[in-house]
Amino acid sequence: MRQEPMSIPEQTRQSRLSSNGWKIQRIAKWLDREMDRRLIDHGITVQQFAVMMTVLETDGLSQTQIGRQFSAPAYTISRAIDHLERAGLLDRRPHPTSRRTHTIHATAAGHKLSPALLAIVQEVNAALVAPLDTAERDRFSALLTKLT
Amino acid sequence: MRQEPMSIPEQTRQSRLSSNGWKIQRIAKWLDREMDRRLIDHGITVQQFAVMMTVLETDGLSQTQIGRQFSAPAYTISRAIDHLERAGLLDRRPHPTSRRTHTIHATAAGHKLSPALLAIVQEVNAALVAPLDTAERDRFSALLTKLT
DNA sequence: TGATTTATCTTGCAATTGCAACTATATTCT
DNA sequence: AGAATATAGTTGCAATTGCAAGATAAATCA
């Protein structure tokens, strides 16, 4: 006697779609899109933005050091810097003591971009927690910290 | 008189790196890696996994309907199904009334994979909230829902 | 009905990504 | 010192992605 294979019960579906992981992925995707939407005017991607912010915040880091800031592989940094260098926003300079290391520095144009980038971060973060009241924001932030 | 361009104050850096957006992105990346790490044994990616789950949960959806489940563009679904079909986990069948629509169905092999996939979801979600106690988990889940 | 618009799905192409291999330099070990 | 290892960064290649355009088919409109 033949029987159709059972499909997953509705309850299971609900529990997956309402899982924390799923929600976080959705929110993260939204964040990415919002960032990209605003960054496109400045000709950079979120990936490149992260590198640029790091360089603006700390001048003269090596590529490896930059990568460690957000655990990105070396080649990601290498290529992001290729872009940002071509865009004239930063440049590679020889390291004072090591000939295989570069130190990375924002150019004048890079520094000029800084306020706009900071504004974007703040705007997107504000939009993210807009549905929450002050107490909820504090709790949310604390909980996220526990997970990191 | 020449002056070095100001770099972004430490406080600003701290506020960016501790922002909710940043933390969420970090967690989302972690989730992705954890899922991928487990799914690789089954030869599918997270993207394909999402499609597969949807098909397992609801048999006979069209590709567009599947895409709406997680607001993925049509071509993503098209290609994910290409893979899953080639892997023998599901198949496209003609729609009963519309000749341009496919209905998507899990194969026997697809159904057989179901428990393993469900286990992965549960495992990763459990690992995600492992640092939180029961009350915190409830609060976290509620807050995430508000943001969605 | 025939023309226009919309819907469903696919695909060509260029850009991006991830892996592994590579170059070059620095460090450690014997 | 010389050999073996480790580190910093780059690159070739294959796979993936995203956009825009295409191919059908269905629905709407005049």
Question: Would you write up a description of this structure?
Answer:
Two copies of one chain form a homodimer. Chain A starts with 9 loop residues before the first helix and ends with a helix. The longest helix of chain A is centred in the C-terminal third of the chain and has 21 residues, at 108-128. Helices cover 64% and strands 7% of the residues of chain A. Chain A is mainly alpha-helical and 148 residues long. Chain A has seven helices and two strands, in the order αααααββαα. Chain A has one domain (39-147): Winged helix-like DNA-binding domain superfamily/Winged helix DNA-binding domain (Arc Repressor Mutant, subunit A, Orthogonal Bundle). A two-stranded antiparallel sheet of chain A has the order 1-2. In chain A, helix 3 packs across helix 5 (74-86) and helix 4 crosses helix 5. The relative contact order of chain A is 0.10. Chains A and B meet through helix 1, helix 2, helix 3, helix 6 and helix 7 of A and helix 1, helix 2, helix 3, helix 6 and helix 7 of B. Chain A binds a DNA duplex (30 and 30 nucleotides) through helix 5.
